[in-house]
Amino acid sequence: MTSGGPWPFVLRPDGGERVVRPYALTAGRTRPSGASIDLVAQVSVVRTMGAELAPELVSDLGPEHLRLLRFCRARVSVADLATEIDLPLGVVRILLADLRERGLVSISQPAAAGLNDVRILREVADALRKL
Amino acid sequence: MPYGSSEKAADRPSVPVAIKILVAGGFGVGKTTLVSSVSEVRPLRTEEDMSEPSSLVDQLEGVERKTTTTVAMDFGRISISDDLVVYLFGTPGQRRFWFMWDELAYGALGAVVMADTRRLADCFPSIDYFERNGMPFVVAVNCFDDARRYPSETMRSALNLTEDVPLLLCDARQRTSSRDVLVALVEHAVARLSDGPAVTPAR
């Protein structure tokens, strides 16, 4: 991992507990760049980490960015990601926006259209009844 | 098409339909219990900017520079199929958390407002909120073992509920009971679609 990037981070020597405050991971930024990211937006990697990634795309990414990339190899919601990686939602959004800016992940905003579709809602009700 | 628009449609052509349901109500009313009885619940941490009303409540002496507060929500997911997922968010109901509700409410199917007859007033702010933004909601009275039972009509009138808002009795510890509450909410949303104006996402 790099240590010279713009995202200061401190991990204990054993690689465990995070000891920095959450927004230190975002270099103090409290707002994500670009379009807003919904709680249930679906995130997936566009390019997987590997040899094909240009070094300038990942060289200044922090370990939290890389963890996020690993978690969204399969499509996953923003809320799921935040609980998996155990970081506050606001921080996760900012880190995701960074990854989006580099074209590393794609973030699909959910459509509210399903809410006006009686057929879908009935499907949901039927499925819930079977719980 | 019920699918979400994708920023990079070529990469992932189909986006699952995400149904967002909020579970609101006062402290200790059983939100976590309800969410965990129908799904695997996980805590979702948010760091929120402190709002004005909150600043009046929280003692800031000695922490004057604190501008965000950590709020934990209960997050549950019910996967119906690969393309259809229900997300549950249990949120603190106090008025001072309303600032984070606007975002939660955006694009949500509706809300379950949980009530406890021993502290009925605790759910007033939640009911106020959903009435104001026109989101479909049901009231679920969590029947605690030591709480007095009242006739539905008495509770309706105490809550000043309009006739169209379903009120149910539930036991949030029981999966089937919590499930029935969610089904009632979805059916209520369907009924509103059928006879009322289209549901517009709240914001």
What does this protein look like?
The complex is a heterodimer of chains A (131) and B (203). Chain A has a three-stranded antiparallel sheet with strand order 2-1-3. Chain A has 131 residues and is mainly α. Chain A is built from five helices and three strands, in the order βααβααβα. Chain B has 203 residues and is an alpha/beta fold. The radius of gyration of chain B is 18 Å and the shape is globular. Residues 1-13 and 51-56 of chain B have low confidence and may be disordered. Chains A and B meet through helix 3, helix 4, strand 3 and helix 5 of A and strand 1, strand 2, strand 3, strand 4 and helix 6 of B.
Question: Main attributes?
Answer:
heterodimer; A: 131 residues; mainly alpha; Arc Repressor Mutant, subunit A; 3-stranded antiparallel sheet; B: 203 residues; alpha/beta; Rossmann fold; 30% helix; 28% strand
Write a short abstract of this structure.
The complex is a heterodimer of chains A (131) and B (203). Chain A is mainly alpha-helical and 131 residues long. Chain A is 35% helix and 8% strand.
* CATH fold topology of chain A: Arc Repressor Mutant, subunit A
List segments of chain A where confidence is low: pLDDT < 50 over at least 5 consecutive residues: 1-10
Please, what is the oligomeric state?
heterodimer
Structural class of chain B: alpha/beta
Strand order, main sheet of chain A: write it out. 2-1-3
What percent of residues of chain A adopt helix (DSSP H or I)?
25-40%
Strand order of the largest sheet of chain B: 2-3-4-1-5-6-7
What Rg of chain A is obtained from the alpha carbons, in whole angstroms? 17 Å
- Name the CATH superfamily assignment of chain B: P-loop containing nucleotide triphosphate hydrolases
Mean pLDDT of chain A: 79
The CATH topology label of chain B is Rossmann fold
